[in-house]
Design a protein that fits this description.
It is built from 13 helices and ten strands. By secondary structure, it is α+β, with helices and mostly antiparallel strands. A hairpin with a 5-residue loop joins strand 5 and strand 6. The longest helix has about 35 residues. It is found in: Cytoplasm.
Length: about 325
C-alpha cells in the first residue's frame, strides 16, 4: 500500500469514526430531551419496509376485521414503508407517554377508557413532538421530519416494538415488563441516521387472561383482534347503530374499553402519570349511571372540554349509554 492509499484509508477510517460518534451523540441528545419533555421512553429504528407486518395486515383486512373503518384500507404501502410516507426518511423515533390515572371512576358508573379521562392526547403529544423536533433542528442542524400521533398511516405498535420499547401482546397492545401498556405511542420520522435499538422478546408466555376476559370475544386468536367485534370499535368508530346481538355484552363501557389491559398481569406495574393535562374534570370520576343517563349537552361540553370523547359527539355518547341501559 503506497502513501496515497494509506492516506485515503486513514481518511476513510477517520470519517467512519466521526459518523459513528455523531450518531451516538445525536441519539443520546434526542433520548435525553425526550425524557426531559416527559416521555416515558424513546426507541429508534431504521426507516424501512415492515416485511413481517405486511402479510399480517393484508390478511387482517381481507377478513374484514376492520369493520367500517375503511380508512384502514387506504395507503397500504405507506403504512408499511415510512420512506414512501416521508421522502428521504432514515429513522423512526418512537416515543411512549404514560396516561395511567391515579384515580378511576366510581364503581357505580358507566365506564370510560382511561386514555380519554383528560385532554385529548393528540394535542398534548403533538405539542411535545414539535418541541422535540425543534430541539433536534437547533442542536443537530437541518433535519427534516414529521410528527405522528395516531393520525396518519403509521403502524405505531410495530415501530415501537421494532425500537425495543416493548412487545405486541396477545391483545395486540404494546407491552413492557416495567410499566405494562397504559401509554400512548407516537413517532418522529426524520431524515437523520441514528443508532438503532433492537427489539425485545415476548413475555406473554402461556397467559391468556386478555383473551379469556374479552366480553365480546374480539381476540379471536393470540395476537389477532377482530376490530369489528371490539367494544372500542362499537362505542367510538361505528357510526351506525350497535348490532343488537351484542346487547348485554359491552360490560357497561360507554366509550372505549380497557378490559384486556385491566386483566393483564404486566399492568400490575403501571404507575400514575405526571401530566396535568391528562387529569379528568372533577365531575367525571364521581358521576353515577343515573348522572350519565340524564347528561345534557351542556354537561357533556363542560366535562369533556378538549377531550377525545368529543370525537363520538354528544349524540354518540347518548347512543352508547342508551344501548347499555
Amino acid at each position: 500500500m503506497d502513501c496515497f492509499e494509506v492516506n485515503q484509508y486513514s481518511e476513510f477510517v477517520s470519517e467512519s469514526h466521526k459518523m459513528i460518534n455523531n450518531k451516538l451523540k445525536h441519539t443520546k441528545l434526542i433520548k435525553t430531551e425526550a425524557k426531559r419533555l416527559g416521555f416515558l421512553s424513546c426507541g429508534i429504528s431504521k426507516a424501512q419496509f415492515l416485511e413481517e407486518e405486511a402479510p399480517r395486515l393484508e390478511k387482517w383486512l381481507k377478513k374484514n376485521m376492520h369493520g367500517e373503518m375503511r380508512y384502514m384500507e387506504n395507503h397500504f404501502d405507506k403504512r408499511l414503508d415510512p420512506t414512501k410516507l416521508i421522502e428521504g426518511s432514515k429513522s423512526v423515533i418512537s416515543l411512549l407517554l404514560n396516561y395511567f390515572p391515579s384515580e378511576i371512576q366510581n364503581s357505580e358508573s358507566y365506564k370510560l377508557s382511561k386514555y380519554a379521562y383528560g385532554t385529548d392526547y393528540h394535542f398534548v403529544i403533538k405539542d411535545k413532538l414539535k418541541l422535540l423536533l425543534s430541539f433536534i433542528k437547533d442542536e443537530i442542524g437541518d433535519v427534516q421530519g414529521r410528527a405522528f400521533v395516531d393520525s396518519a398511516p403509521v403502524l405505531d405498535k410495530a415501530w415501537a416494538a421494532r425500537s425495543g420499547l416493548g412487545w405486541v401482546g396477545k391483545h395486540s397492545n404494546l407491552l413492557t415488563q416495567q410499566v405494562g401498556s397504559f401509554y400512548f405511542i407516537a413517532e418522529l420520522i426524520v431524515d437523520l441516521e441514528l443508532e438503532y435499538d433492537s427489539p425485545t422478546t415476548d413475555h406473554c408466555g402461556t397467559c391468556t387472561a386478555c383473551m379469556d376476559a374479552c366480553p365480546t370475544q374480539a381476540i379471536t386468536e393470540p395476537y389477532v383482534v377482530d376490530g369489528s367485534k371490539c367494544i372500542s370499535y362499537f362505542t367510538i368508530e361505528l357510526k351506525e347503530n350497535i348490532p343488537t346481538e351484542f346487547k348485554g355484552q359491552l360490560d357497561d363501557w360507554m366509550f372505549g374499553c380497557d378490559v384486556c389491559q385491566d386483566v393483564c398481569p404486566w399492568n400490575r406495574f403501571s404507575k400514575a402519570h405526571a401530566e396535568p393535562l391528562f387529569n379528568p374534570h372533577p365531575e367525571l370520576l364521581s358521576m353515577t349511571k343515573k348522572d350519565w343517563e340524564e347528561i345534557t349537552n351542556d354537561t357533556f361540553v363542560k366535562v369533556f372540554k378538549n377531550s377525545a370523547v368529543k370525537r363520538t359527539k354528544f349524540s354518540g355518547l347518548k347512543r352508547n349509554i342508551n344501548f347499555l341501559k
